[in-house]
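Researcher: Go.
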Amino acid sequence: MNMMKKKVGRPRILERQNIIDIAFNEYWEKGIFNVSISKIAKLANVSRPGIYKEFGDEDNLKVEVLNKYLRLSADPCHKNYFDYKNYPNHLFNHFDAIINDGNKNLTEDPAYLNIKRPKKAIGCLMERTRLNSNLLGPKTKDLMKKYTQYRKKCFQEYIRNAQADKKIKKHLNPEFLSEYILALFNILQINRLNRLNKSKIEQILNLALSPILTK
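Model: Structure:
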């Protein structure tokens, strides 16, 4: 009786996850626009056609990687904007996380606390990607657009509570302030990438926040 031999090798699901994990580290360290498929293929020990066969195109791979980042880092942080009672300093801790590559006061979620951050990563992968979102593919661009809208809602909820707590000036429009806060995150990320001294970045942030805070 002839029996078919089972193919020996890494299960496909593990190979797919390995590619995502490698791209995750490379994108966060070097920027999502500065890493080629060839580089990822070499590190994952697979072929370029193999990556395209698995993900369809580079845009789909970037979506997978960013979804991993949102799940592990962004989601655990942003959900606490809706819990002002327990996280009254959440916005400031979030700014601090960009400046100092993380802040354990943002959340108790183990996904965030145990994230394996690449050694040379600077700031936030999402913020770094948002700096040049016009260069993204359609699926990745749509993901970032939707998450940015969600972030604005997070900020607006926090702002309203901070205004009620008399920490943020009440006459300021929460919708406008949410755009302002997004811009501040952009500025912080740019300054980090430009290797500006952290104390100077903090001084810039304090100056930018002074017109909206009550104290």
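Model: The chain has one domain: 58-209.
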